[in-house]
Amino acid sequence: MGRSRGGLTTKIHVLVNECGLPLKVRLTPGQAHDGPVAPLLLDELQPGQAVLADKAYDANHIRNLIWEQGAEAVIPSKSDRRFPIPFDRDLYRQRNKVERFIGRIKKSFRRIATRYDKTADAFLAFIKLAAVRIWCDAYESAT
Fold first, then answer.
1. Which residue in 29, 57, 123, 140 has the fewest CB atoms around it within 10 Å?
2. How confident is the model over 49-87, as pLDDT tens digits?
3. How far from each other are the two terminal CA atoms of the chain, in whole angstroms?
4. Distance set, CA 103 to CA 60, 67, 110 (Å)
5. Which H/E stretch holds residue 14?
6. C-beta of residue 28 within 8 angstroms of C-beta of residue 37
7. What pLDDT score was predicted for residue 66?
8. Domain ranges in the chain?
9. Do residues 140 and 44 lie in contact, with contact meaning Cβ atoms separated by under 8 Å?
10. Integer Cα distance of 88 and 78 in angstroms
11. Mapped to the 3 state alphabet, what secondary structure does 22-91 carry?
12. Long-range contacts of range 138-141, CB-CB < 8 Å, 24 or more positions apart?
């Protein structure tokens, strides 16, 4: 957990599949950069997959990690990059599935939105419980 003038803060990093269902979840303190958690989320990519991420993940080592696994990085370049790297804008629009997952757990589980838990372990456990419920809802409606 990170501490700021607003209190305790935490960032939720999520890897979702093409249906918007969570595959991996990690937490970092609110003041931490997004880059260091990327290798933990992107360690099991398959060749041909596309990784859609926001500008915070625009770093050469993250792009190399994705490329070495045979996947495609669909990440817009930061404004300070000397030579912007082109990306597929149409495919990048699918990144909203991550945002919709985060919005869904915050809407459905007030405890996550208001950060009731005092420890990161308890908070992460409840996020994973919410993820399991979302998976169950997806399979229940599919049958």
1. 140
2. 999 998 988 999 999 999 999 999 999 999 888 899 999
3. 39
4. 29, 30, 11
5. strand 7-16
6. yes
7. 94
8. 2-142
9. no
10. 15
11. EEEEEEEECCCCCHHHHHHHCCCCCCCCEEECCHHHCCHHHHHHHHHCCCEEECCCCCCCCCCCCCCHHH
12. 138/19, 138/21
Asked whether 91 and 75 are in contact (CB, 8 A), the reply is no
141 has pLDDT over 90: no
Contacts 24+ apart (CB under 8 A), 123-127: 123/10, 123/27, 124/25, 124/27, 127/12, 127/25, 127/27
Token pair of 4 as six digits: 């700021």
Give me the CATH topology for the region 2-142.
Answer: Nucleotidyltransferase; domain 5 (3.30.420)
User: For residues 84 and 76, what is the distance between their CA atoms, to the nearest angstrom?
Assistant: 8
DSSP label of 99: H
